[in-house]
Write a structure and sequence with these properties.
Two copies of one chain form a homodimer. Chain A is an alpha/beta fold and 443 residues long. Chain A contains 19 helices and 14 strands. The model of chain A has no long low-confidence stretch (mean pLDDT 95). At the A-B interface, helix 7, strand 3, helix 12, helix 16 and strand 13 of A face helix 7, strand 3, helix 12, helix 16 and strand 13 of B. Strand 14 of chain A pairs parallel with strand 13 of chain B, so a sheet runs across the interface.
Chain lengths: 443, 443
């Protein structure tokens, strides 16, 4: 079921990166887009239409798109609150949580909060450069978190996005999630103290948070993954609002040696594969015996799993086992691939970790498996996909602050630097710059 | 010359933000685009054509666009190196720098380097959460800096972009700048130890650094401002490569009280206004007497300046003096505007600074004027424009690193957390996640 590949074959297939922008739109999406927006309208064009209308018409456009796309008449349902779920409903959902699930979610929230509270921020100042110079990290005023809807609600994503914002000191955190949200989403919003939940999905939610409407506040930063329309909308509002990046299908790489337990490795790959049919689960190992045992285990364990159909597809799409000459080459291939998650199920994970330059999350040893990272270990599970770990980071406290550089020079330093600044200004042909500097020379 | 406005009028005019995306393309740009790319081709479409061709054809496309757009035949000029300026030319340009300019640039480079070396990075680890958890900041492998060409070369922008990358530990920093670069750009590239300078401009430069070609390496992060085509190209490659943001016209706000010197304030506004006709120079003051003196000084000083024509236009476009009821309201308006630079020429700048939530750079006191920040104070002068200081930061060392989250739990903690993770997984309908966690429970 899980194919076994040599390195060159893997590099031509499962290790090859396809940029998000080069992916074809699924036929069903194209059909639905044409049906709703008219003949020949592409998904990016549909998204541009939605964005422009929400910017121009506000809530009226939101109601129209929610009716057309999500088949909900938000006006009729909740005349007083509009799109905002009443706080009492959040609390009610929270009170209805099963006791043991509530405890688990609270434990997760507690660890996520503690982890992010450790993150140092670049608040610093020096007096060694003549006066005071430094940087201040100031939280953004408002953050918006998108939480996808669909059949499998992901309350964990809400915790993983909201808590880093709260730790950063963001004044107001709002959540958008498609209409008729699952009660567990509402419950978790209450649990972690979200200010407002709006039942808005897709591109219209991104538009509302970017531009603001009569009822939805404009935010300074939007985070969270969503469907194709959400991703296209984020791409189009780039530059107008802060973003956490564009999310593609989730990915795991496991590097294992002969010390790894094949049943655990198989379980970790299966967990990854159950997300969706494009999920990517790759094992790199120099040990053929382990590889073959993992193949057997994957087949055996899959029988008991509820999402076996999805798993079957994702394992055959972008997943597989790569036999590498040694662990160093495995680490090199992983670094090139820049996976969202990299799990090191080897005897000496720390020394292997030092060879990895690109990965969203590094899980050291088979006791630190990815599922713990998904829910409760501490770091946000919102991590860079599609190879963007080359330059992007997991969601973290820095995502919710911006730096202001501070310049408070003393008079003497200012005077000494002024002729130097004037000289460079004249080389750039900027005489007004030079004049402003020459004014400050103490003679 | 510099108009005097009350707050409501200012809010309707110069304090009003127009998003980059809503700005009309200048007629001359539309004409030139149609002439080069064909009837009805818009600038974004032209940029999409350039990006796709460079991705598909590499150097051949770069040569074609350089010939068509920049009227240079790079093949014929430098057959051996292609687009790369030979290192010997960089050194020659450096040797030809006037001695006093060279000293000024070296002093600037030294202060910029020292400033950025102070910035703390989020490398941390804790053992308080059961095992070891933390974050590692890893430099990106390769960074690309775009330096615009044009009539006024800006060697300072090269220093301000390259040095933070070097401090971050980036392995290779390359520069792209339009063909036939000014010798001072080449000299400064040598001065700060840039690895390679490519004479490539516009969208084709961004394409080359994003996708890589036979001669230009693919980079992980692109920084630097450019013309409209550069900005559109950055917008279109968002998600494929790390970016520092989209740059609009430069902006300064000065808040001044009756203690400020009108001649200095005027000089600072004029320095800002000489950048280009869209530059924005705004004074906020509660003191009418100061406001009127600044008006007089602006008129008087302008006569001596070489770029008086540009200044006249930029002062009448997006600049002005706003009379505010008090300093607190001035600080509030500045925070709302989120300027690139904010200069506090007041008796107690520090207490006013604490009221500002959004600004790229804060200059405290009239000895810390913006021109010093442009060249030599220390912080990078690449700062967020267009109101993006709401969520974006000046270029800094964090721009050139990414975080990897580290999870190395001990066996006991892993076992204790596993049933909690399994419970949340089951609530999300993810049974393979639950199974992977249940495997790790020590019974």
């Amino acid at each position: 079921m899980l194919k076994l590949l040599d390195v060159p074959t893997a590099q031509r297939t499962i290790l090859r990166r396809t940029p998000l922008s080069a992916m074809d739109y699924p036929g069903v999406v194209l059909e639905r887009t044409e049906k709703l927006f008219g003949k020949g309208v592409t998904p990016p064009q549909a998204v541009a239409i939605i964005l422009a209308s929400v910017q121009a018409e506000g809530d009226a456009a939101l109601r129209r798109w929610s009716k057309l796309i999500d088949q909900v008449d938000l006006d009729a349902k909740t005349p007083s609150e509009g799109f905002c779920v009443p706080p009492a409903e959040l609390e009610k959902a929270y009170q209805s949580l099963p006791e043991d699930l509530c405890q688990a979610l609270q434990a997760a929230a507690g660890r996520i909060r503690k982890f992010h509270e450790f993150q140092p921020l670049p608040n610093w100042e020096t007096e060694t450069l003549g006066g005071r110079l430094g940087q201040r990290a100031i939280p953004v005023d408002r953050a918006g978190v998108y939480v996808p809807g669909g059949t499998a609600p992901l309350p964990s994503s809400l915790l993983m996005s909201v808590i880093p914002a709260q730790v950063a000191g963001v004044r107001q955190v709002v959540v958008c999630t498609p209409p008729n949200p699952h009660p567990v989403i509402l419950a978790v919003a209450h649990l972690c103290g979200v200010d407002q939940v709006f039942q808005l999905g897709g591109a219209q939610a991104i538009a509302a948070m970017t531009f603001g409407t009569e009822t939805v506040p404009r935010v300074d930063k939007i985070v969270g993954a969503g469907n194709l329309f959400v991703t296209l909308a984020k791409q189009q509002v780039y530059g107008l609002v802060g973003l956490d990046g564009l999310a593609g299908p989730t990915e795991t790489m496991v590097i294992a040696d002969r010390h790894a337990r094949p049943d655990w490795v198989a379980a970790d790959l299966l967990a990854q594969a159950e997300h969706d049919v494009l999920a990517c689960a790759i094992l790199l190992t120099p040990d053929r015996e382990l590889a073959e045992k993992v193949q057997v285990e994957v087949g055996r364990q899959m029988e008991a799993l509820s999402r076996a159909e999805i798993i079957t597809q994702s394992l055959s799409n972008r997943s597989g086992i790569v036999l590498t000459p040694d662990l160093e080459i495995a680490a090199h291939l992983a670094s090139e691939f820049a996976p969202e998650h990299l799990c090191l199920a080897v005897a000496d994970p720390e020394s292997l970790a030092s060879r990895v330059h690109n990965a969203g999350g590094l899980f050291l040893g088979e006791r630190s498996f990815e599922v713990l990272g998904d829910y409760i270990a501490g770091p946000s599970h919102v991590m860079p996909t599609g190879g963007t770990a080359r330059f992007a980071s997991p969601l973290n406290v820095m995502d919710f602050v911006k730096i202001t550089s501070i310049v408070a020079l003393d008079a003497l330093t200012s005077s000494e630097l002024s002729p130097l600044a004037a000289r460079i200004a004249r080389a750039e042909g900027l005489t007004a710059h030079a004049a402003a500097a020459e004014f400050r020379i103490i003679r």
